[in-house]
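Dear support,

Our group has been running a series of protein-ligand predictions, and this particular one with flavin mononucleotide is the one our PI (initials K.S.) wants archived with full inputs and outputs. We had some confusion internally about which version of the output was final, so please treat the block below as the authoritative record. The input we submitted was:
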Amino acid sequence: MSNLIKFKIDGVECMTERGKFIVEAALENGIFIPTLCNMPGVKPKGSCRICTVKINGRLMTSCTTPVADGMEIESNSAEINELRKSIVELLFVSGNHFCPACEKSGNCELQALGYYYQMMVPRYPYEFPLREVDASSPHIIKDQNRCILCKRCIKTIKDEEGKSFFAFHDRGHRLEVVLDKEMGSQMSEALAEEAMKNCPVGSILKKEKGFNQAIGSRKFDKKAIGSDVKL
Amino acid sequence: MKNTVKQIVEKYGNDKTRLMDILIDTQETFGFIGQEAVELLAHQLGMSQVDVNQTISFYHFFSTKPRGEYAIYLNDSAVAHMFGRQAVKEAFEKEVGIKFGEVTADGKIGLFNTACIGMNDQEPAAIINNKVFTRLTPYRVREIIKHIREGRKVEGLINESFGDGKNQLPSLRAMVSSNIRRKGMILSDDYVYGSVTRDILPKMSPEAVIAEIKHSHIRGRGGAGFPTGLKWEFCRRAKGEKHFVLCNADEGEPGTFKDRVILTEKPELVFEGMTIAGYAIGSDEGVLYLRYEYRYMKEYLEQVLAKMRAENQLGKNIGGIEGFDFDIRIQFGAGAYVCGEESALIESLEGKRGEPRDKPPFPVEKGYLNQPTIINNVETFATAVRIVQNGGEWFTQFGTEDSTGTKILSISGDCMFPGVYEVNWGFNVADMLNMVGAYDVQGVQVGGPSGTLIGPDEFHRTLGYSDLSTGGSMIIFGRQRNLLKDVVLNFMEFFIEESCGSCSTCRNMTQVMTNKLKKILNGKGVAKDLDDLKQWGKVLQASRCGLGQTAGNPIISSLKNFAPLYDALIQKDKDFDEGFDLVASVQNSCKYVGRVPNFNHH
Ligand SMILES: Cc1cc2nc3c(=O)[nH]c(=O)nc-3n(C[C@H](O)[C@H](O)[C@H](O)COP(=O)(O)O)c2cc1C
Ligand code: SF4
Ligand code: FES
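Confirmed final output from the archive:
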C-alpha cells in the first residue's frame, strides 16, 4: 500500500502509484489533460506545453512532472484553459494548417483541440510561412507546413540499430523536423505507417493512404477529444 | 579527408558524447563540416546523418558550407550599434565587396553577424578566426582587409596595442582590455592562489566546507540566485557512480563580460573554487564550459591548468589529502546563448543540441551523464575560495542581509568608464551611474535583455536578490537613444535567434510579439496592440526554461516603464489597423506569378 499516493486535481481527490507522471495519473482517475507532444510509454519531452498545469503557483507540464504525495494540481481552470487555447492558436498561426484540404482531418489532434477549446479564429495574426514539402522518400511525405515540432517521430521511428530517421534541424523559429535522405529512401512500409500514425497532425503522410478512411467517420469526427476518458 | 575525420573521432574515443569536440576539430581542420564529413562522422559514430546534422545546425559557429579562409563575425549587440557598428559594417561590405552572410567567390573572406561576444566595453568588436578585434572603426576595417588580401595570417592583423593586464601575456596576446575599474575580494591581488587547497582544505572535512558555504549565504552569481551551499549539499547527498563539477562560462547574456575578465585575470581562483567544490561534493572531475567566443583564451587557460597540475593544485592527492583527486578539462560551446541554461549546458556537454531538460529531475540528482552534478557560475566558484579562506561569517559582513558578499558588474553603454566593477550588494542604481560617469541617462537595462529596463524614477532601487536581481549586466542608455527601435527590437530579435525552438510558446510567441512591435514602430499600431502585447506576453510563462519565460521582458518591461514612448507611436484616430500593406503584398504576389503590378488602374 505504501506505493499508493494521494493527490488532488482541481479539488478532486485522486490516487495513484508513486512515480507516475501527472497526465497518466489523471487519466487513471478519469480526468483528461490535453497533450500533443506526449506519447504514452515514450520518454516525455515537454515541448508543446499544452498539458501545462499549475502547482503551488508554478506552471509545470503534466507530461513530465511526476505526481508527489499530497500534490494539489490546478488544471481545468479559466486561466489554464485560456493558456492552452492560446497555445493551440499559436500552433495554428505559425504553420499553414488548412484543415478542409488535409488528409489527416478528423484524426488530427491539433484540429481536435481547436474544436475542444472552441477556437473560432486565432487571436494572433497568421504568419503564412513559406515551408517545404519533402516527397523524396518512396513511402512518405513530410509536409513542413503542418509540422508542430512535437518530436514524436524523432523519438519513436528508428531502425534496428537505434538510428533515427527523423531529427531536428536548425533552432528557434527556423526549427524543422527533417527526414534522413538515405534512411528515408529505405524506410519500410510498416515503419512509414507507424510514422504517420505517430504524427499528431498531417505532417507525415503515408503515400497513397491519405484518404483510406472516409472523412466524417474518423476518430474525432465522432467524438470530441478527451470525451472517452472515464473512470 | 577520411583518415583525418577518423583520427579526430578516435582522438575522442569514438565517443558520441564528445560530439562537440569532434565537430569543433572537424570545423577547424576543414573550415566547415561538409556533406562528406557528415557522412564519415555519422558512419564512424553509428549515427544517422540527420542526427549529426541536428547538432551541427543548432550551433551558430558550425557550418556545413565554407565560411571563408578568414571568417569575420561582427558583433550585433545593441551596444555595438551605439558605438558605430553600422559604419563598420558598411566598411566591411565595401572593402570586401560582399554582403553580410556571404563568402567571397575566391573563398577567402566571409562576413557574418553574431550575437553579443562579451566585449560590450570595447565595441564594435569582431571575431576573425578565433581572435577578437576590438574598438573597430572604418579605418581599421580597411587596414584589416588590406592585410588579409596581402596574405597576412590572422595574428598579423592585430596592431601592436594589446589589451591591459594579462591580455599581454604571450599565451594570450589579445587586443581585449580587462577594464577593471573597482576591485573587491575577488578581483583583489591580495590572495595567493592555492593557499586554501594547500593550507586550509586538509584541515576541513567536506561537510565543514559545505557548512561554511551555507553559512555565508552566498547565492549563485549566474543570475538565478540559488543558494550555493544547498546546491552542494544536495549533490553531495545524491547517489551516483560519479559526481561532477561544472563551471558555467557560457556568458551569453548580452552585456555581460565579467566572466571573461575573471577568467583572464584570476583563472587560478576559478579553478581552485572548482577544486574545493570537488572536495565538498566528492567529485574528481570538473569541466569548464567556455563559450566559443572566448576560444582565444584556450592556450592560456590550458597553460594555467598545466601549471596547476605541476604544482599539485590539480591531480592526485591534492594538498596532500590522501585520495583527493581532481582534474579539470575545458569544453567549448559553439555559439548558443541557451547553452548557458544549466541543463542545456549539460546536453551540449554530452554532444547534443543545447535543449534544456525538463525539471525535475535537477542536475544535482541527474546531471552530466545522468550523474549528480553541480553547475555554478565562474564568479560563484571564485567567491567560494574567499569564503573557505575567511569563513562564512566573515563573508556576511559584505553586502546586505539577503544578498551577502560582492558582485562583479559588467557596465557598458553610454558612460565614461565602461568596464568591470566589483561592488558590495546593496549598491543603488543612481550611485552606480555616478560611479561610472553616466549623465543624462534615459534608462538602464539591468540584468541584460532577460532582465528589466528601468527609467530614472527607479534609479533609487538597489542591486540585490530582493530588489533588482542581476547576473551583472548593466547597459546604460543616454537620452539620445531610440529605446524601442534600437534596444527593445534588438533584444527581441536576439531571443528569436537564440531560442532552442523546443517550446511552442518560446518558438512562436517571441516572433508574434516582435511582429507586433514592428507594426507599432512602422506607425501602424493602435491602442489595442499595447493591450495585446501585455496579455500575449503571459503565454511565455509556460515555457520550459528561463529563456522563454523572460523572452518577452524587453517589451513587457518597456511597456511598463516607458509607456509614453509607445503612446507616441500609436495612431490616436483609429481603433483598428490590420497593419496590412496592400502595395507590398501585391508586389510580392506579382513576383511569384510573374506579373507586373500596376497600381494606377485602381
Ligand atoms: C537562457 C539562460 C542562459 C543562462 N546563461 C548563463 C550563463 O551564461 N552563465 C551562468 O552562469 N548562468 C547562466 N544561466 C543560469 C544557469 O542556468 C544556472 O542557474 C547557473 O549557471 C547556476 O550557477 P550559479 O548558481 O552559480 O549562478 C542561464 C540561464 C538561462 C535560462
Ligand atoms: S523556453 Fe525556449 S529556449 Fe527554453 S527550452 Fe523552451 S524553446 Fe528552448
Ligand atoms: S504534452 Fe506535455 S508538453 Fe506536450
